[in-house]
Amino acid sequence: MNELAVEAAGSGVEVLAVEIPRYEAEWAAFGGDAAEEENPYASRGAAAGLYGEGDTLRFANVNVPRGGKYTVSVAVLNPAEGAELSLAANGGRKKAVKLKAQERNARGVYEAELELEAGENELVLFDSRGSFIIDYVDIWRRPG
Ligand SMILES: [Ca+2]
């Protein structure tokens, strides 16, 4: 991830542009019954289906330049009623995210804050309840 800080001289205004690395779910390691799905509404035309409790997606190589709190945005399609997703970094405590009903093939984006370490991190997404499809994950840092 490249970060570029631009300071507007004398104005006291700082503009911070952050490049957001995107991790396609279909490129993650699948656990349980998780599997790649073709979906024309998903980025790259593909996504990862998680079909029930115990299915997982593992991103083994999430690289960030600095340690600290990051926002993980997860793009979800077609969650079953009451479906729940959890996330954890580096084997840490899971953050649970309840998925809301959404229009078929519409993309819902859910956010969770996770502590990441400088360098490589392992991010795991767990199916805690119900089925849903994950399209991609964006990892970024709020400016400031
Ligand atoms: Ca995708």
Topology:
Blueprint: E1 3-8, E2 13-18, E3 22-24, E4 29-31, E5 35-38, E6 46-50, E7 56-64, E8 68-77, E9 84-89, E10 95-98, E11 108-116, E12 119-129, E13 132-140
The protein binds calcium ion (CA).
Describe the 3D structure:
There is one protein chain. The protein is mainly β and 144 residues long. It has a single domain, classed as Jelly Rolls (Sandwich). It contains no helices and 13 strands. Strands 3, 5, 6, 8, 11 and 13 form a 6-stranded antiparallel sheet that branches. It is globular and about 35 Å long. The protein starts with a strand and ends with a strand. The mean pLDDT is 90.
Shape descriptor reads: globular
Rg over CA atoms, rounded to whole Å, is 16 Å
CA-to-CA gap between the ends?
A: 16 Å
Strand content: over 45%
Q: What's the order of the H and E elements?
A: EEEEEEEEEEEEE
Main beta sheet, described? 6 strands, antiparallel
Bound molecules: calcium ion
- CATH fold name, please? Jelly Rolls
Short description:
The protein has 144 residues and is mainly beta. 0% of the residues lie in helices and 59% in strands.
Please give a handful of descriptors for the protein shown.
binds calcium ion, five-stranded antiparallel beta sheet, 144 residues, globular, Jelly Rolls, mainly beta
